[in-house]
Backbone:
């Protein structure tokens, strides 16, 4: 289920963790719009100088429900994107019905020893995952478990690319119930936080927007409420190694293996992960 779908003036590349592709362009449809053949989505012509966007959307709707085996590709590669489940120990990933339709990704329950870890990694061409100096938006819907932090599982990383100590990172996390977004580049880092803790067991949608030197966090609640927080500050170019994965549900090594120790395993369900880079 796609929350807050935005019309894009042009879609240069699209990849989904479903067999169905998502249409882009003026008046484009949302999840469930399936072209006759896989391939780049053609859009109507746009005027010279009009903005363009690269968009990656994972909604998990067209996959078989139930548990997903370790190191399994969730869907055939499309436009060069590869979406895989990565597990350690008893960590498992499954697909379950979303209460508002479609399916959501269910990640492992809380484990204070962090021996059970599971994430989903996305490897894709740089155009899909690398903002460089452009404005971009990172969105994810989530439902946090009532028990989710302590011991070696000391946080809830929702979606991210890059690690804290690396030259570039963008991420959304939920620590102590507070949603925050971090963007770091060659000019510095900016962190913006929500004002109030989220309610466990309820669906929220977080959207992190970098617009020039402003970072804004939008948080939509289950009751239709919406709140926004913003922080001013330069972040600059976000340049990653091409093989740096986008990770849903935790953090990994550059090879895509869930990290040991401070795992930041997200405990709960995730849906509609979207990255839009405005070129």
Residues:
């Amino acid at each position: 289920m796609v929350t807050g779908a935005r019309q894009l003036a042009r879609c240069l590349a699209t990849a989904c963790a479903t067999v169905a592709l998502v249409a882009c362009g003026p008046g484009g449809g949302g999840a469930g719009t399936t072209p006759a053949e896989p391939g780049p989505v053609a859009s109507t012509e746009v005027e010279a100088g009009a903005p363009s966007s690269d968009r990656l959307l994972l909604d998990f709707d067209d996959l078989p429900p139930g548990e997903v085996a370790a190191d399994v590709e969730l869907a055939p590669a499309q436009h060069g994107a590869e979406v895989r489940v990565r597990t350690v120990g008893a960590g498992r990933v499954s697909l379950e019905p979303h209460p508002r339709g479609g399916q959501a990704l269910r990640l492992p329950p809380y484990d204070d020893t962090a021996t059970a870890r599971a994430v989903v990694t996305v490897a894709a061409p740089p155009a899909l995952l690398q903002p460089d100096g452009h404005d971009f938006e990172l969105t994810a819907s989530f439902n946090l478990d009532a028990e989710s932090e302590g011991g070696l599982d000391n946080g809830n990383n929702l979606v991210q690319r890059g690690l804290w100590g690396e030259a570039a990172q963008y991420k959304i996390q939920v620590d102590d119930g507070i949603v925050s977004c971090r963007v770091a580049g060659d000019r510095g880092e900016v962190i913006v936080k929500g004002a109030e803790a989220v309610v466990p067991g309820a669906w929220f949608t977080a959207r992190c927007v970098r617009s020039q030197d402003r970072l804004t966090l939008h948080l939509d609640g289950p009751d239709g409420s919406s709140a926004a927080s913003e922080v001013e500050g330069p972040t600059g170019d976000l340049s990653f190694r091409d093989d740096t994965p986008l990770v849903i549900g935790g953090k990994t090594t550059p090879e895509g293996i869930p990290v040991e120790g401070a795992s930041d395993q997200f405990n709960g369900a995730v849906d509609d992960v979207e990255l839009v880079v405005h070129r």
Q: What stands out?
A: The domain at 58-278 is CATH 2.60.120.200 (Jelly Rolls).
